[in-house]
Backbone:
């Protein structure tokens, strides 16, 4: 299954699917899960990881909302979609920077996913007009 295929099946889209936006939607969804998992793992660490937990949970929520907005194709709200992509980039960069402060493998993986998601949202942002 692919989100790209699902988007192409939408009556308002067809073969004019925005591949960059579909990729951003997919990575935003995955990033939300990575951040949620990282936050959960941070809670199990012996050291104080409160800031990392908070940053990961905020990023997870923003990424989840981004994925949802990116796949909605009925009607247009380009202004809101652009703003959502921009906040997703910011949330992912903030989360990656926080996770990179820690030596935990789950934090390293989360930071990598956040950087990838931010890059994909940047690419999608350039295509949404």
Residues:
């Amino acid at each position: 299954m692919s989100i790209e295929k699902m988007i192409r099946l939408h009556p308002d889209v067809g073969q004019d699917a925005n591949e960059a936006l579909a990729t951003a939607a997919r990575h935003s969804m995955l990033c939300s899960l990575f951040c949620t998992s990282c936050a959960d793992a941070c809670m199990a660490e012996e050291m104080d990881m409160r800031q990392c937990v908070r940053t990961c949970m905020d990023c997870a929520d923003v990424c989840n909302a981004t994925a949802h907005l990116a796949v909605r194709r009925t009607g247009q709200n380009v202004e809101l979609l652009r703003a959502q992509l921009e906040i997703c980039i910011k949330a992912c960069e903030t989360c990656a920077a926080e996770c990179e402060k820690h030596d935990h493998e789950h934090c390293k993986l989360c930071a990598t996913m956040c950087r990838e998601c931010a890059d994909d949202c940047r690419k999608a942002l350039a295509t949404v007009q």
